[in-house]
Amino acid sequence: MRIDVVSLFPDFIAQCAAFGVTGRAVERGLLWLHGWNPRDYAEGNYRKVDDRPFGGGPGMVMLIDPLRNALQAARQADPAPSRTIYLSPQGRPLTQSRVRELAGEQRLVLLCGRYEGIDERLVAAEVDEEISIGDYVLSGGELAAAVLVDAVTRLQEGALNDAESAQQDSFGDGLLDCPHYTRPVEHELGAVPEVLLSGNHAHIAAWRRMQSLGRTSQRRPDLLDEQALSKADRKLLEQWRVEQG
Ligand SMILES: COc1ccccc1CNc1ccc(C(N)=O)cn1
């Protein structure tokens, strides 16, 4: 997958992606990242990229033309069609199911705003969709873009090894993950749940599913509402609630 990022800090995303799973994906040629700086496409010797907001108010707004020129340069850099996404608090909340859809695209062009945002005429004319990574305000869209890059890269074929993709699946099933434990068995902070030491894989799988269901019902009941629970799941959840007391 090729991802072009239009940002005043074009190397930001590439540096975020340079580690771990995404770094490996870049090395394996599964992810191709390129940054485009609107300042390189700005007029005048001050290379102006922002200006005062019409109607008054604090802060600055990003100008149309430097962004538009950078977006066009990014799109023209590769013949494959691309989808332009603007990361903003006004966007549609990003979910794993949306990540799965975007991971299937050949190309994404990510537009990162700074200051108070971007002239709305550019958004209306050049943006295919606005996405928010959560209900909070950041100093720029770059961190949100880096989150999206990470999430879609993990789903590229060959990006994860077997253990990592199994982990991804346990999250991807729409429930919160179960608790995890490792050595030592005994610790001043407590012991490891017996079932995990039993070697009984059916019991372990049932316990993990029960923990995922219980945690989801306790912490994110909204996610549970979306799940059509099987009879077995409802039984496990009931058992978890009894054990919780
Ligand atoms: C004041 O900042 C802006 C105002 C308008 C647009 C973009 C920005 C850049 N900041 C962002 C970007 C994305 C998210 C998110 N929740 O996805 C949060 N902040």
Automatic annotation (TrEMBL):
One of its GO terms (cellular component) is cytosol. GO terms for molecular function: tRNA (guanine(37)-N1)-methyltransferase activity. It catalyses: guanosine(37) in tRNA + S-adenosyl-L-methionine = N(1)-methylguanosine(37) in tRNA + S-adenosyl-L-homocysteine + H(+). Its EC number is 2.1.1.228. Its main location: cytoplasm. Transmembrane segments: none annotated. Residues 1-225 form the tRNA methyltransferase TRMD/TRM10-type domain. It comes from the Bacteria. One of its GO terms (biological process) is tRNA N1-guanine methylation. Homodimer. PANTHER family: TRNA (GUANINE-N(1)-)-METHYLTRANSFERASE. Specifically methylates guanosine-37 in various tRNAs. This is tRNA (guanine-N(1)-)-methyltransferase. It comes from Lysobacter spongiicola DSM 21749. The lineage of its organism: Bacteria, Pseudomonadati, Pseudomonadota, Gammaproteobacteria, Lysobacterales.
